[in-house]
Amino acid sequence: MKRYFLIFATLSSVLLLTAFFLGIGVLNERAQGMVPPQLDQPLKATWFTWHMIIALVAVLFNLFVHCLVFTYLLGTGKWVKEVAAAYSLPSEGWPKMTRQFKVEINRYLLMAMAMSILAAVTGAGSQTDPHGWWPIAHALLAVMVLFVNGWVFWVEYRVILKNEVVLEEVKRAADSLRGPAVEGEV
After folding, report:
1. CB 112 within 8 A of CB 149
2. FRET partner for 112 with CA separation of 20 to 30 A, picked from 66, 67, 76, 182?
3. 151: Cβ–Cβ under 8 A, 6 or more apart, which residues?
4. Rounded to a whole number, what is the largest CA-CA distance in the chain?
5. Cα 22 to Cα 52: distance, rounded to the nearest angstrom
6. Per-residue pLDDT tens for 168-178?
7. How far apart are CA 94 and CA 162, in angstroms?
8. Is the predicted pLDDT of residue 9 greater than 60, yes or no?
9. How far apart are CA 94 and CA 63, in angstroms?
10. Residue ranges in the chain assigned as alpha helix (H)
11. Distance (Å, rounded) from C-alpha 4 to C-alpha 68?
């Protein structure tokens, strides 16, 4: 999982950064007097259009990555619990550790997901009301999304590494209790 996570987290970060820099291009267009398109106007190939498309993809992919991490921890936690029950391993050891991993990471990944969603919502608000408070909130949240997600990706990676250690230890313990494999046994 750590390899896939690194690829997905990197891709998510690149998409978020791309959306951010395209957003700076939108600010430049607005400074030059270009107005955002109205809802009934077709979109032209402008910084705004690219920012909107890439930002939408970035936010959805970002949510996917965080959901994938939590689902992975749920699945591996269930596996550890079932193996511990099947081989009479202590329920206070590894199963408790996998529960702690989920508790440890849950609030952080939910915060990162909420930040991404809020940035997208304020971005939509700044398009419909470019002279209100939406553009300022969107710009601030966009910066916060980059830093919060970078930090949460680091925390998630550390938890994934700790989880992999637990998985290896549980597998090793179960293999030692099972004994040597008999010829022809699957």
Report:
1. yes
2. 76
3. 108
4. 78
5. 9
6. 999 998 888 87
7. 11
8. yes
9. 28
10. 2-31, 47-86, 94-128, 134-178
11. 10
Model pTM score: 0.88
**CA 121, CA 31: separation in Å to the nearest integer?**
22
**Residue 27 · residue 44 · CB < 8 Å:** no
**Tokens for 42?**
């077709």
Distance, CA of 28 to CA of 85 (rounded, Å)? 61
pLDDT higher than 80, residue 186 = no
Q: DSSP 3-state assignment of 83?
A: helix
d(CA 153, CA 86): 33
Distance CA 85, CA 77 (A): 12
Q: What's the CA dihedral at 43, 48, 49, 54 to 10 degrees? A: -160
Q: Is residue 182's pLDDT more than 60?
A: no
Higher pLDDT, 176 or 20: 20
Model pLDDT, residue 61? 98
Model confidence pLDDT, tens digit, residues 153-164:
999 999 999 999
Concatenate the DSSP letters of all residues of 44-77 into one string: PSSHHHHHHHHHHHHHHHHHHHHHHHHHHHHHHH
How much is the pLDDT for 185?
Answer: 58
- C-beta neighbour count of 14 within 10 angstroms: 12
Please report which helix (H) or strand (E) contains residue 180, including its range.
none
